[in-house]
Write a structure and sequence with these properties.
Length: 477
């Protein structure tokens, strides 16, 4: 029997499998792992073909480093290597297994499939469906095989098209400008009091008095009732949800504490935070007694602002408290003597330093704030920008160029951060309903997502989740 007739009888991978199975039976056993029944009809981009042999190349992507005068090498593992698939295949005219029609037409269709741009799907006889890119193909035609074309096909495993992109972390930028503002503020404070502090104890006492006033203001803020309710907003379950802050974005993104945490645990944590504020205030007043050590005094002032910020779990509360702390303004001195002028200079310099310490913590708090809508992000950016612009104007009027530049850089960083995180969020829209409906029903009706009911409750400021207001503002989508 001629070679062409033998190949025609085999026909395709199915014919080869049948022959192999018959051979295994004659030898007295079945193929291990039920190999024949697991075979799949081979194809690429829907063009079928038979397979005589296949080879898979796999391994690790290693970079071998060789060094002079060293016998060994260092192999750097760079991840898994892409798999290569080598197939020795064939096309046969009017195959009894896969059909296909004329062999020339089959070859032309396979060539077009190989030359089509992009990744394609390879159906491997034993590996199944694989996403690959075609590297090259060879078609061998012989006069003695007639309507049988032999193929050599090479594929490589395809991956996602991913490229590294350069970008600036807006959170890191906020931290950097806050640190720079702190450093510039302390340096400016040292320059302002350089002459005044030489005039004696009355001037130093003025620093102590001003620090004490700011400390009292911070203690009053740390006992804020709304801040205390925010302390339990991270509690798992409905209790924490109902006491969540007004920052809806935060309530959706905040990590809950462990299930074993109780209200008592959170209250104890809050008590520790209040104690930290008190201790930071005491340290500030003590440092004010040695105000000529401006580095220590500045560090203690920053510590008090940081302690107050840390006491507020909800970033919305944190921003509110820092805005209040940053508006501190002591009563001005009413004397025109040389000592009185020096005391007024010390008082003004301390007040400037304290405000800027609060502003630097405000910048960091903006990074933790999660806007719930584009409108809220824009509103927060405008509010913080007004605070920074007012402080920059004051610094500019006083000739504090470094502080002015840092405040302007902070303004730019805050706007960029809120724009990056909130610019693409949905806008706020007005909603109206004829009756007080449950939050679950409204979330399903408005967003086709009942899991958004918690955020909807906060946005609408509902008295009870089962009786939502008939009119409220919420995310449009």
């Amino acid at each position: 029997m001629g070679q062409a007739k033998i190949l025609n009888a085999v026909g395709s991978i199915g014919g080869v499998a049948s022959a192999a199975s018959a051979l295994a039976g004659a030898l007295g056993g079945d193929l291990p792992g039920d190999w024949q029944s697991s075979l799949r009809q081979a194809s690429y981009r829907g063009v079928p073909f038979g397979v005589l042999a296949g080879e898979v190349t796999f391994g690790r992507k290693n970079a071998v480093h060789r060094y002079p005068k060293r016998d060994g090498v260092w192999v750097e593992d760079m991840g898994r290597e892409a798999r290569l698939y080598h197939l020795t295949a064939f096309l046969v005219e009017n195959s009894a297994v896969y059909g296909g029609g004329g062999v020339v037409g089959q070859r032309d269709r396979l060539i077009r499939a190989f030359e089509t741009a992009g990744d394609g799907e390879l159906v491997h006889p034993t590996l199944g469906r694989v996403k690959v890119s075609a590297l090259e193909g060879h078609s061998l035609e012989r006069w003695d095989t007639g309507r049988y074309f032999e193929l050599t096909l090479v594929f490589i495993e395809a991956g996602e098209r991913r490229f590294p992109t350069n970008g600036t972390s807006t959170g890191d930028a906020l931290s950097a400008v806050a640190d720079s503002l702190n450093a510039a503020s302390v340096l400016s404070f040292a320059k302002q009091i350089l002459s005044a502090v030489k005039l004696g104890a009355a001037v130093v006492q003025q620093a102590v008095s001003t620090a004490l006033g700011w400390y009292v203001a911070a203690v009053g803020l740390v006992h804020d009732v709304k801040r205390f309710f925010g302390a339990v907003s991270t509690l798992a379950g409905n209790f924490g949800r109902l006491f969540g802050g007004g920052n809806s974005g935060y309530s959706a993104a905040a990590k809950k504490v462990k299930q074993s945490t109780t209200v008592g645990d959170l209250i104890r944590n809050d008590a520790a935070a209040r104690t930290a504020v008190t201790q930071a205030g005491v340290a500030l007043v003590a440092a004010a007694g040695h105000v000529s050590d401006t580095a220590t005094f500045g560090a203690k002032a920053q510590g008090l602002a940081a302690a107050l910020a840390a006491s507020a779990v909800d970033p919305d509360d944190r921003i509110r408290l820092l805005l209040s702390l940053g508006s501190y303004q002591p009563d001005s001195a009413n004397t025109s003597s040389a000592i009185g002028v020096a005391m007024a200079t010390m008082q003004s310099a301390c007040a400037d330093l304290f405000r800027r310490c609060a502003v630097s913590q405000l910048i960091l708090a903006v990074g933790a704030f999660q806007p719930r809508s584009a409108d809220e992000a824009s509103g927060m950016a405008a509010m913080v920008s007004d605070v920074l612009a007012a402080e920059a104007l004051r610094a500019g009027d006083q000739g504090e160029d470094d502080v002015y530049l840092q405040l302007m850089a902070a303004n730019k960083a805050v706007v960029a951060d809120l724009k990056a995180r909130g610019g693409n969020l949905a806008a706020v829209a007005d909603f109206g309903f004829s009756d007080n409906l449950p939050a679950l029903m409204l979330a399903q009706r408005m967003y086709r997502d009942p899991s958004r009911s918690d955020d909807l409750i906060v946005q609408a400021d509902a008295v009870h989740p089962a009786f939502m207001p008939t009119k409220f503002k919420a995310l449009a989508s």
